[in-house]
Design brief:
two-stranded antiparallel ribbon, Rossmann fold, seven-stranded mixed β-sheet, alpha/beta, 33% helix
Length: 225
């Protein structure tokens, strides 16, 4: 995967001490999420932000991108999709780590919707844990029929996770948050969650602040004054 997408350099003007990778949703591109990085820059002044464009043109058209195809006609397509897209994204992350000379413990994955599915899937399967994973309006993708044992067998690291969702989401219903949180807890993966009332498929200001402060804590930084 060619590492193309908007970037933000550390607000401090120095070298990056942390890296936040923002994974967009189905039919969008990196430009949709980079503004989240701008909102968090005052709290993470030494962090670089990168919002890569997904590798495939979206099947729905409109000039957007997708991490994997979604037809909503096959219950297994999300599982096949995250596994199909993971190797290229894994390589992109390795290239970013090398470019910034950072360790996985200095990196956070933040994903929205389909991007959240990718962040959760890949982040749990890296040999070294990231500093954190944030899943916004998405959910954990599990193999149909595999059960908890099958899910737990694929886990290689257990970074702290925050799940955030709107209770009026009709694209990915809020039940995805609760089922994901239960599965993660059963597999001994540290997970917190935040519910935004009256919010549909999106991220409100409260969720944005909650997630930003979660990253501050995960990176071991001082709580903002």
């Amino acid at each position: 995967m060619t590492a193309i997408g908007p970037r933000l350099k550390p607000r401090s003007g120095g070298v990056a001490r942390q890296l936040v990778i923002l994974l967009h949703g189905f039919g969008a591109d990196g430009g949709d999420l980079i503004e989240i990085g701008r909102a968090w820059q005052p709290w993470l002044p030494d962090a670089a932000f990168f919002a890569p464009h997904a590798p495939e043109p979206c099947i729905a058209g409109g000039g957007g991108r997708q991490w994997f195809s979604l037809t909503f006609r096959d219950t297994r397509e999300r599982w096949r999709g995250v596994n199909h897209a993971a190797p290229a994204l894994d390589g992109l992350i390795d290239a970013e780590l090398a470019s910034h000379r950072l360790r996985p413990q200095q990196v956070a994955l933040v994903g929205f919707s389909q991007g959240a599915m990718m962040a959760l899937h890949l982040g749990l399967r890296r040999a070294e844990a990231f500093a954190a994973i944030v899943g916004l309006s998405g959910g954990l993708v599990t193999e149909e029929g595999a059960g908890l044992d099958g899910f737990a067998a694929g886990i290689r690291s257990r970074p702290p996770i925050l799940l955030s969702h709107g209770d009026r989401d009709e694209v990915i219903p809020v039940g995805a948050l609760f089922s994901s949180a239960r599965t993660l807890a059963a597999a001994d993966v540290p997970c917190e969650w935040h519910l935004s009332t009256g919010v549909a498929h999106g991220v409100d200001e409260t969720a944005l602040q909650h997630a930003g402060l979660f990253l501050v804590r995960a990176f071991g930084l001082p709580f903002p004054a």
